[in-house]
């Protein structure tokens, strides 16, 4: 019985398999050069999967994410810079596809938020210290 | 000033509630449109995806007449569902080319035998490279390409029966 179950487990195909094609060459295979692989991996972790939408392509099992990983690795291997590939993808899918915030004006409040909050904190602290000095 | 400040946390709290409530009731739009609409098609040359149709290159889409470029796959269920609509578009005079995504020739042949073949040319994009270059995020999708090879419109998802007149209008507008 156990053997039969094991056999079933071996031949079971994943339910979500979308195509019969094998994955693209570098979808799940690292680049031989560790430095290049590091570059590719860092980029893949900040590119959003179009199928799953809340995962990066590094985390996703969708076949399109696999194709994107392979394309990124091959382009990095061919000497392209990660930021150039990111810009190429943004030109096609919009800012949406990148998890890395850009310096676009719409994001200025985001970049300013830490400074504004820090400033507010300093003001608050100053008020407190002054009041304490007066009361003691 | 003091008495006003006391109300600040409550006001913030209510503001957040309003923000979240509006987010709850707003329909969620997860469709990613290609940013290349209005721009020339990226250049590509693809091998033939079907035994009885010629391969497809981007230059063959700039013919002076607007054409439809259908992105499909034999493994995609909604692609089979939109087949009658593609036939209707072809009957209405639309020229339709296609790109098969992550596919293999025997599978495409079987798919076309089952669902009909309205395509003039079919290119095989075995590794989604052209799909990504087009800014397409899934199958099926249909692009309206004008006579000069610019992307005039992107239809995401299957073409339903009531989309057919709209697609024909887009084709006319791209003239």
UniProtKB/TrEMBL annotation, chain A:
**Family annotation (CDD domains):** CcmH_N (cd16378)
This entry's Gene Ontology molecular function terms read:
metal ion binding
Which positions, given as ranges, span the membrane?
106-125
Q: Which UniProt keywords apply?
A: Cytochrome c-type biogenesis, Heme, Iron, Membrane, Metal-binding, Signal, Transmembrane, Transmembrane helix
Q: Which residues form the CcmH/CycL/Ccl2/NrfF N-terminal domain?
A: 23-134
Cited Gene3D superfamilies? Cytochrome C biogenesis protein
The residue range of the signal peptide is: 1-17
Q: InterPro entries of this UniProt entry?
A: C-type_cytochrome_biogenesis (IPR051263), CcmH/CycL/Ccl2/NrfF_N (IPR005616), CcmH/CycL/NrfF/Ccl2_sf (IPR038297)
One Gene Ontology CC term in the entry: plasma membrane
Gene Ontology terms: biological process: cytochrome complex assembly
| Family membership | Belongs to the CcmH/CycL/Ccl2/NrfF family.
Instruction: Output the PANTHER family linked to this UniProt entry.
Output: CYTOCHROME C-TYPE BIOGENESIS PROTEIN CCMH
Role noted for this protein: Possible subunit of a heme lyase.
* Name of this protein: Cytochrome c-type biogenesis protein
Taxonomic source organism = Sphingobium terrigena
Organism ancestry: Bacteria, Pseudomonadati, Pseudomonadota, Alphaproteobacteria, Sphingomonadales
């Amino acid at each position: 019985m156990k053997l039969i179950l094991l056999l079933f487990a071996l031949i079971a195909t994943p339910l979500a398999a979308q195509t019969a094609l094998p994955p693209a060459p570098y979808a799940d295979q690292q680049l031989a050069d560790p430095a290049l692989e590091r570059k590719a991996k860092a980029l893949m972790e900040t590119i959003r999967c179009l199928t799953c939408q809340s995962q990066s392509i590094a985390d996703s099992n969708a076949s399109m994410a696999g194709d994107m990983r392979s394309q990124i690795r091959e382009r990095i291997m061919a000497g392209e810079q990660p930021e150039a590939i990111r810009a190429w993808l943004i030109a096609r899918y919009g800012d949406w596809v990148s998890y890395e915030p850009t310096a676009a004006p719409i994001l200025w409040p985001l970049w300013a938020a830490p400074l504004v909050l820090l400033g507010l904190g300093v003001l608050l602290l100053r008020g407190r210290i002054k009041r304490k000095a007066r009361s003691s | 000033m003091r008495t006003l400040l006391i109300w600040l946390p409550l006001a913030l709290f209510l503001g957040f509630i309003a923000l979240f409530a509006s987010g709850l009731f707003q329909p969620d739009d997860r469709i990613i449109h290609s940013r290349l609409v209005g721009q020339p098609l990226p250049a590509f040359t693809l091998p033939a995806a079907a035994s009885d149709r010629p391969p497809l290159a981007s230059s063959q889409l700039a013919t002076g007449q607007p054409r439809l470029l259908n992105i499909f796959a034999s493994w995609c269920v909604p692609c089979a569902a939109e087949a009658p609509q593609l036939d209707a578009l072809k009957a209405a005079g639309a020229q339709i080319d296609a790109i098969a995504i992550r596919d293999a020739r025997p599978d495409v042949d079987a798919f076309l035998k089952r669902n009909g073949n309205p395509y003039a040319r079919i290119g095989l994009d075995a590794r989604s490279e052209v799909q990504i270059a087009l800014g397409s995020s899934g199958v099926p999708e249909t692009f309206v390409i004008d006579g000069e090879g610019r992307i005039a419109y992107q239809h995401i998802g299957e073409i339903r029966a009531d989309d057919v007149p709209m697609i024909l209008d887009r084709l006319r507008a791209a003239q």
